[in-house]
């Protein structure tokens, strides 16, 4: 499959909706006919449980297995252990074992590019790979940024931490400089927005003022909604759980924006090729 785009959903701040966005953007893209792999890169394994694999500790094959195989230079079947979800996305699951990887990666050769080496083995089968990052900027997240073509940063208005954003931007800058020169920031997503307050608007204004000239802020903002929180325990997407909810509509709009970015990139590619 040509032109797979790998997107890291990343913010080292906890609880900004990275997992919820990975599920609903990923399934949104699948609903538009795209072949999608979701990668759980968080030892909490929330992406895996959100998609219905509640007992993730008993899964025999996870992202940890795949990273270990690459580190030991073993040639296992790269597709073995990838799960298929009823809403037409594939999942490379995770569980707590991944936390041991932080330490193991530190002493590994080419330690930042282990995940990239693995994903290169499967990416021909997908048009989009979304990586749900953990809330830290440790080795596993560096691996996600090294493997990605671009980053989407979900930000929660109430907790816009200027310092946190600076740190994230610096890390992305360093990854670009040293490991992955083509890494781009696709955009900042205003997430879990409480429309009852003015804070969302002032956060959007602050983000546009500080970053708007260099980074896109998605037009779609995901509203704070009980249904969007509840869906995490249902094993399905917001489109299946509550298709007419404002959150489902917002995620469908975000999906369109992400697809439009992809089309723009393809046009640039073909113009370059001519
Ligand atoms: N639009 C929303 N409205 C209300 N609650 C939401 C919304 N999106 C996500 N949540 C809830 O907010 C919490 C954090 O969301 P989520 O797990 O997606 O964030 P995260 O960034 O992946 O977290 P972590 O940093 O711990 O990995 C969860 O309880 C989730 O159900």
TrEMBL record:
Domain (AAA): residue spans on this chain: 5-185
Looking up SUPFAM superfamilies in the UniProt record yields: P-loop containing nucleoside triphosphate hydrolases (SSF52540)
Catalytic reactions on record: ATP + H2O = ADP + phosphate + H(+)
Q: Which CDD domains match?
A: ParAB_family (cd02042)
Name the Gene3D superfamilies for this protein.
P-loop containing nucleotide triphosphate hydrolases (3.40.50.300)
Alphabetized InterPro entries for the sequence: AAA_dom, DNA_Partitioning_ATPase, P-loop_NTPase
What's this protein's family per the entry?
Answer: Belongs to the ParA family.
Record text on subunit structure and interactions? Dimerizes in the presence of ATP but not ADP; ATP-binding is required for double-stranded (ds)DNA-binding. Interacts with DnaA.
Q: By what name is this protein known?
A: Sporulation initiation inhibitor protein Soj
> What is the protein's species of origin?
Diplocloster agilis
Taxonomic classification: Bacteria, Bacillati, Bacillota, Clostridia, Lachnospirales
């Amino acid at each position: 499959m040509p032109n797979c785009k790998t997107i890291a959903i990343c913010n080292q701040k906890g609880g900004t909706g990275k997992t919820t966005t990975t599920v609903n953007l990923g399934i949104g893209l699948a609903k538009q006919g795209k072949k999608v792999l979701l990668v759980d890169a968080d030892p909490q394994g929330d992406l895996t449980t959100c998609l219905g694999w509640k007992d993730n500790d008993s899964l025999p094959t996870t992202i940890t297995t795949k990273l270990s195989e690459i580190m030991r230079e073993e040639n296992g079947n790269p597709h073995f252990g990838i799960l298929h979800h009823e809403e037409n996305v594939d999942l490379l699951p995770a569980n707590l074992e991944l936390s041991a990887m932080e330490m193991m990666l530190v002493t590994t050769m080419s330690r930042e590019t282990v995940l990239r080496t693995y994903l290169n083995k499967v990416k021909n089968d997908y048009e989009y790979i979304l990586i749900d990052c953990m809330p830290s900027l440790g080795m596993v997240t560096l691996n996600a940024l090294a493997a990605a073509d671009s980053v989407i940063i979900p930000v929660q208005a109430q907790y816009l931490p200027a310092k946190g954003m600076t740190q994230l931007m610096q890390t992305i800058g360093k990854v670009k400089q040293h490991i992955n020169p083509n890494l781009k920031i696709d955009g900042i997503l205003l997430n879990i927005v409480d429309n009852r307050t003015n804070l969302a608007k002032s956060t959007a204004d602050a983000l546009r003022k500080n970053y708007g000239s260099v980074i896109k802020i998605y037009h779609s903002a995901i509203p704070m909604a009980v249904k969007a929180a509840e869906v995490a325990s249902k094993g399905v997407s917001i489109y299946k759980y509550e298709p007419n909810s404002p959150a489902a509509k917002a995620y469908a709009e975000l999906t369109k924006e992400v697809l439009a970015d992809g089309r723009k990139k393809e046009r640039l590619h073909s113009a370059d090729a001519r």
